[in-house]
Amino acid sequence: MTTIEADLVVIGFGKGGKTLAATLGKQGRRVVMVERSALMYGGTCINIGCVPTKSMVFAAEELNTDAPDPAAYTAAVQATAALTTDLRAQNFAMLDTIPGVDVLTGAASFVDPHTVVVRTDDGEVTVTGRTIVVGTGSEPTWPDVPGLRDNPRAVTSTEMLSTEDLPRRLVVLGGGYVGLEFAAMYAGYGAEVTVLERHHAILGREDDDVATCAADLLTEAGVTVVTSASVTAVDGATVHYEVDGSAATVAADLILVALGRHPVTADLGLSNAGIVTRADGSIEVDEYLRTSQPHVFAVGDVNGGPQFTYVSLDDHRIVLDQVAGSGSRSTADRRAVPYTLFMTPPLSRVGLTEREARAAGLDVRVASLPVAKMATVPRARIVHQAGGMMKAVVDAETDEILGAALLSYDSHEVINTVALAMRHGITASALRDEIYTHPSMTEAFNQLLGALA
């Protein structure tokens, strides 16, 4: 049995862990990175998450036909696989080329608070670390629905990304972000898509006008959304469900299970290290991302926080500050964290919704405009994506931007401007009167914030 002593042990090759490993490795620290699968070097984002899904979305948006295009779909899957293969190799090399950094491929489990055993193809390796970081991410959750789990037609987003044959009929279980992204994407390739959402509406956390606009866009794209749908069973190609007590069925060539994700912690032996977890399996951490063992940190999806790659990146900054800095940085420093649903056009939001702001008793001014009626954003028409809407919520007394919802072309870029303004106290009036390039989507703020009422 091989034994390694390290300054830092990272379990999981995700964004937070790999960035921390690279940074400390370049500083001369002895670092061991553990990843259970060679197909996951670089983490969820580049392999089965953000990068491949957005690659597939982009390819769908480039199609110029309303008819099903299986060949274009297959080509997109293959091009996406080549992209992720290249990125995976680059991520492995990023660490493997640093002296003093070892990458071990195998399953890791704790023996005690400072010791991890890694089961590799070449045998077990015992690794002890002064500091240990757990960043094992999350995986799709399977519901307890009769006939679903062992059905060969049922897949998660991971399997869908490597499915080279376009399904003629796709049924998506779940109207959350993953479900809607895949629904819009596959409709773009010409599949008949049905979304079964258990709640009374999709995007329940958004304001009603924003959620309705998003639903209308999905309908226009050919997606059938069934709300208040409770899936009762799956029988081969038939999905059985109920709506308000009435039974119904829908046929599927493929069934996408998109009903949330849960932390990957079951086989880590956390109890051996005295690391406390929550009921959902996520690891309890304080604002500095320390677990119940002060030398063990948890970053990314596994700590129960927002499941975004860029949050994991910020997690690394907090841990780095604890290990090699002043130790003052914490999750309490975070504010105005944006997020995006990559439908077409994408929906991006930051801060409070109008509903949340009013429920908090705030006196607000609101601007809400359809993109198609905004003369200041010809960019949307140029790229043939004039659908959607833009909405801003502003404190009536201070002129502080409280939140924004941008359902529009390039919103995933534009929302960062809003978030930056919110973090640094730039008022709505200042953002309204800025000088922006033309034609761009950012110049929409000239008109949108000028319409505050």
TrEMBL record:
What keywords does the record list, in alphabetical order?
A: Disulfide bond, FAD, Flavoprotein, NAD, NADP, Nucleotide-binding, Oxidoreductase, Redox-active center
UniProt source species: Mycolicibacterium sediminis
Name-wise, this protein is Pyridine nucleotide-disulfide oxidoreductase
According to the UniProt entry, its GO molecular function terms are: flavin adenine dinucleotide binding; NAD(P)H dehydrogenase (quinone) activity; oxidoreductase activity, acting on a sulfur group of donors, NAD(P) as acceptor
Family statement: Belongs to the class-I pyridine nucleotide-disulfide oxidoreductase family.
Q: What are the residue boundaries of the Pyridine nucleotide-disulphide oxidoreductase dimerisation domain, all occurrences included?
A: 337-447
| Pfam short name (any one) | Pyr_redox_dim
Q: Does the keyword Ion transport apply?
A: no
Q: FAD/NAD(P)-binding domain spans which residues? A: 7-312
The protein's required cofactor(s) are namely: FAD
Give each disulfide bond as a residue pair: C45-C50
Please give the Gene3D superfamilies that the UniProt record associates with this protein.
3.30.390.30, FAD/NAD(P)-binding domain
* Binding locations of FAD: K54, T136, G137, S138, D301
The UniProt annotation places NAD(+) binding at: G174, G175, G176, Y177, V178, G179, L180, E181, E197, G260
Q: Where is the active site?
A: H438 (proton acceptor)
Record flagged with keyword Nucleotide-binding: yes
What detail does the entry give on cofactor binding? Binds 1 FAD per subunit.
